[in-house]
Amino acid sequence: MRIGSIINGEEVKGENREVLTVLNPYNQEVVAEVVLAVVEDLDKAIEQSFEFFHQTMKKMPAYQRSDILRKTADLLAERKETFAEMVTKEAGKPLKYSRGEVERSIQVLRFASEHAKQISSEVIPMDAAIGGENRLGITKREPLGVVAAITPFNFPLNLSLHKIAPAIAAGNTIIFKPAEKTPVSAYMLTRLFHEAGLPPGALNLVMGRGEVVGDPLVEHDMVHKVTFTGSLPVGRRIRERAGFKKVTLELGSNSPNLLFDDIEVEHVVTDLVKGAFVFSGQVCISAQRVYVHKSLYDSFLEEYIKQTKALNIGDPMEEATDFGPMISEEEAERAKLWIDDAVDKGAKVEIGGEQKGTILTPTIITNVKNDMKIIAEEVFAPIVSVLPFETEEEVVRMANDSIYGLQAGVFTKDISRAFRVADQLEMGGVWINEISTYRQDNHPYGGVKQSGIGKEGVKYAVEDMTEMKFIGVNLKDRL
Ligand code: NAD
User: Fold this and answer.
1) Where are the alpha helices (DSSP H) in 210-328?
2) What is the pLDDT of residue 418?
3) Which of ligand 1's atoms lies nearest the C-alpha of 177?
4) Is 179 near ligand 1, meaning CB less than 6 Å away?
5) Residue 477 near residue 179, CB atoms below 8 Å
6) Region of 353 on the Ramachandran plot (φ > 0 left; ψ -120 to 50 alpha; else beta)
7) How many CB atoms lie within 10 A of CB 51?
């Protein structure tokens, strides 16, 4: 399989372009070859997108945009298994989780289809101001133009759709720049939209290395908004280069989960095994830090180790596999070095910590100090630190002691304490009696501090992908 960028519906596979080989992270088999775009291809895609926005997309009625999104959802539902298998092949995600990702992607499309018809206006009470009598004021939400959607490898369908679907619902055109590791599902998704009736000019796919096409895409004058999901260093660079463009940044975190002394340990442990180890911890809201009240600490740890031991590690294409490879050997080696560094500083590996190729076994660490990378930075690997605490004040301070603030989980039966703690946590989102790793596609989602800027969740992304225009009328007969 050899694929390339798709510009105005045409696949670009010309000469003199770098060809990237996509490997299955589990067995290193070749999944596809991808012809990467050069900057001239990117410029052509942006110019075409800009033209198409003004000539067509801006004028497309809401019912039509809604219809296209619904048809894309229907097609994706029909081909659920093919898409899930491709995510497993190119990202190494266990098949059952890839299927879950496709299910969520269908929901994102359906939410966007519904919301396309709900983008509404406001009437401003102009007579609230002295002298404002006989005036009418209304707001309108207008599409922005060309939206650059830059996406990561870990949820190649769902996170791409959190940008593309709201952009279409709002009436924008899109330049879609997927991660180098997962270009095939991006290619299939782009073709799916076109098949569902989206005019090809509304969605251009540009395959390319971030360091080659990233800057020119972010800096281009004809791009009106950059929406990015990925790592902090790249997010920071985009912010610096985007100038006056609107920017949404969905970045990393080291999500905390707080377990107070009034909970039943067992079912929370089951959720936290999944929360820390689903897709080998390569999830932005993975449970990286688990704070457990001292009175529960020993029983929690014992049960956590026991349930982690029971995970089925192996080929992600197998139905029964719970836990597979990381995205690359370099990433697994990097994570292993972080474990070694923590152990050198006094941490204890309770289970896991063994690395071979792309597999790093599910790792639980204790005796962790704040200067260790495994807790201070985003670990983005199957490593979870378990720390004891005594008081509410202490655990809130520990949870907030981070440059990140994306999502947290708080477990307690005491409703007053739950809300008090939720109020004090410096996070974009707090779940009560649910793990930090849980996300639905219709709630506002996005971080504070260095976890990002702006919110996704279809309705909220649409808001960020439109501009509010005010139109006022003087109703006095003056002309
Ligand atoms: P990454 O930052 O390496 O790459 C993300 C995308 O940015 C890729 O498409 C890449 O090609 C592109 N890119 C690289 N350099 C660029 C540049 N100079 N300009 C523009 N684009 C450039 O991230 P990754 O390894 O694919 O994904 C993992 C990261 O994503 C983790 O940090 C994770 O926390 C984060 N993430 C965040 C969320 C969220 O919603 N907050 C969700 C998933 C993943």
Assistant:
1) 210-219, 232-241, 265-277, 294-309
2) 98
3) 9
4) yes
5) no
6) left
7) 15
Measured CA to CA, the distance from residue 124 to residue 117 in angstroms comes to: 21
Q: What is the C-alpha separation between 440 and 109, in angstroms, rounded?
A: 13
CA 290 to ligand 1 center in whole angstroms = 25
Predicted confidence at residue 14, as pLDDT, reads 84
Q: How many alpha carbons fall within 13 Å on the CB side of residue 398?
A: 25
- What tokens appear for 443 in the block? 């709630």
Indicate the top mutation candidate among 229, 232, 451 to test ligand 1's pocket, ranked by most ligand atoms within 8 A of CB: 229
Give 250's strand partners.
229, 452
pLDDT at 267 over 90: no
Q: What share of the chain is helix, strand, coil (3-state, %, to 5)?
A: 40, 25, 35
Residue 399 structure tokens = 């949870």
- 419 alpha carbon – ligand 1 mean position (Å): 32
Task: Locate all alpha helices (DSSP H) within 377-448, ordered by sequence.
Answer: 392-400, 415-424
Tokens representing residue 224 in the block: 């009106």
Active-site amino acid positions: 250, 284
Beta-carbon contacts of residue 233 (< 8 Å; ≥ 6 apart) = none
**Integer Cα distance of 259 and 280 in angstroms:** 23
Q: Are 335 and 355 in contact (CB under 8 A)?
A: yes
Atom of ligand 1 nearest to the CA of 252: 34
pTM higher than 0.90 for the full model? yes
Would you tell me the crossing angle of helices 183-195 and 80-91 to the nearest 10 degrees?
160
Which long-range contacts (C-beta less than 8 Å, at least 24 apart) are formed by 297-304?
Answer: 297/386, 297/388, 299/265, 300/259, 300/265, 300/269, 300/386, 301/350, 301/364, 301/366, 301/386, 303/265, 303/266, 303/269, 304/269, 304/272, 304/273, 304/364, 304/386
Q: What is the residue type of 170?
A: A
Ligand 1 contact, 230 CB (< 6 A):
yes
Tens of pLDDT along 56-107? 999 999 999 999 999 999 999 999 999 999 999 999 999 999 999 999 999 9
Rounded Cα gap, residues 24 and 122, in angstroms: 50
What confidence category does residue 15 fall into, taking pLDDT thresholds of 50, 70 and 90?
confident
Condensed to tens digits (0 to 9), the pLDDT of residues 125-166 reads 999 999 999 999 999 999 999 999 999 999 999 999 999 999
CA pair distance 3, 184, nearest whole angstrom = 8
> What are φ and ψ of residue 5, in 5° steps?
-65, 160
